[in-house]
């Protein structure tokens, strides 16, 4: 069952794609949580981090070099940014196609909401 991200990667539904190569696609998050909020997604559908395979290490490492490049292009390399990968329910994952959030352009605050 293809996810909405697979359809974006295949350009079957619209998105603001900022980068694409044979391994990954990056596009603007539809509900941005910071001035820069981009999702970097493997073109192959991996549901969660739990499903990652050793032979995918090179491709998954490529997510980081693409993140670095996009951060520089968006002018947030020096001010800094945060990379987030959510996994399953407790991690807050909503789309079950592994993806890295690239967030920046403002002070992002603590990594997690403080416990009550
Ligand atoms: P996560 O909670 O880590 O699974 O993140 C899923 C992200 O996908 C959320 O930040 C959503 O705003 C984003 N999202 C969902 N649908 C779309 C879409 N069609 N285009 C761009 N971003 C989307």
Gyration radius, to the nearest Å?
A: 14 Å
Q: Which topology of the domain at 1-30 and 40-46 and 88-106 does CATH recognise?
A: HIT family, subunit A
Per DSSP, what share of the residues sits in E-state strands of 2 or more residues? 15-25%
Structural class: alpha+beta
Helix content: 10-25%
What kind of sheet is the major sheet? 5 strands, antiparallel
What ligand species are in this complex?
A: adenosine monophosphate
The global form is globular
Level-1 CATH class name of the domain at 1-30 and 40-46 and 88-106: Alpha Beta
Helix count equals 3
- Summarize model confidence as the mean pLDDT: 97
* The CATH fourth-level homologous superfamily of the domain at 1-30 and 40-46 and 88-106: HIT-like
SSE run = HEEEHEHE
Q: CATH architecture of the domain at 1-30 and 40-46 and 88-106, please? A: 2-Layer Sandwich
Widest sheet: strand ordering = 1-2-3-5-4
Say how many strands there are.
5
Uncertain segments: none
Distance between the termini: 38 Å
Describe this structure in words.
With 116 residues, the chain is an alpha+beta fold. It has a domain at 1-30 and 40-46 and 88-106: HIT-like (HIT family, subunit A). Helices cover 23% and strands 22% of the residues. It contains 3 helices and 5 strands. The chain has a 5-stranded antiparallel beta sheet with strand order 1-2-3-5-4. The longest helix has 17 residues, at 57-73. The radius of gyration is 14 Å and the shape is globular. Adenosine monophosphate (AMP) binds next to loops.
């Amino acid at each position: 069952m293809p996810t909405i991200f697979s359809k974006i990667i295949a350009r079957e539904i619209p998105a603001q794609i900022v980068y694409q190569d044979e391994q990954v696609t990056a596009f603007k998050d539809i509900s941005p949580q910071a001035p820069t909020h981009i999702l970097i997604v493997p073109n192959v559908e991996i549901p969660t981090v739990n499903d990652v395979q050793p032979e995918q290490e090179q491709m998954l490492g490529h997510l980081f070099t693409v993140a670095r490049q996009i951060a520089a292009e968006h002018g947030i390399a020096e001010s800094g940014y945060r990379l987030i990968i959510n996994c399953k329910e407790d991690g807050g994952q909503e789309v079950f196609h592994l993806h890295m959030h690239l967030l920046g352009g403002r002070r992002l605050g603590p990594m997690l909401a403080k416990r009550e």
